[in-house]
Write a structure and sequence with these properties.
Layout (H helix, E strand, L loop, with lengths): L2 E5 L2 E4 L4 E8 L7 E7 L6 E7 L4 E3 L7 E6 L4 E6 L8 E8 L14 E2 L3 E6 L1
Parallel strand pairs: 2-11
Antiparallel strand pairs: 1-3, 3-8, 4-5, 4-9, 5-6, 7-8, 9-10, 9-11
Length: about 120
């Protein structure tokens, strides 16, 4: 059974940084796409970034240059390094996994398993 567990959220000062982690267990497909999404209060869930099994990454424009997605295959963990945070980054952040590589910013339909989310709150 595939499980994803996010961690690393919390309260951060505007302009600060934090790193989210997503520990994946039970996933055995050699091809995959790992994505980070977020849902801000009153808004729809939106994609943030994804990385595939060949290390190809894609980012939404609003996080380019600020966020970095990476993967530690030895520990089956995906990270989202978030820098220069602002109040618009306040949201619940979710990781997800799909069994196909992703060479574009993949939508929610690309993924078949989701984590429970971790809250990031940016205060000014």
């Amino acid at each position: 059974q595939v499980q994803l567990v996010e961690s690393g959220g919390g309260s951060v000062q505007a302009g600060g940084s934090t790193r989210l982690s997503c520990a994946v267990t039970g996933h055995t497909s050699a091809n995959y796409c790992m994505g980070w999404f977020r849902r801000a209060p009153g808004k729809e869930r939106e994609g943030v970034a994804n990385i595939d099994s060949e290390g190809f990454t894609k980012y939404e424009d609003f996080v380019k240059g600020r966020f970095t997605i990476s993967i530690d295959n030895a520990n089956n963990t995906v990270y989202l390094q978030m820098n220069s945070l602002n109040d618009e980054d306040t949201a619940m952040y979710y990781c997800a996994v799909g069994d196909r590589r992703c060479r574009v910013l993949a939508g929610t339909g690309w993924y078949n398993k989701w984590g429970q989310g971790t809250q990031v709150t940016v205060s000014s």
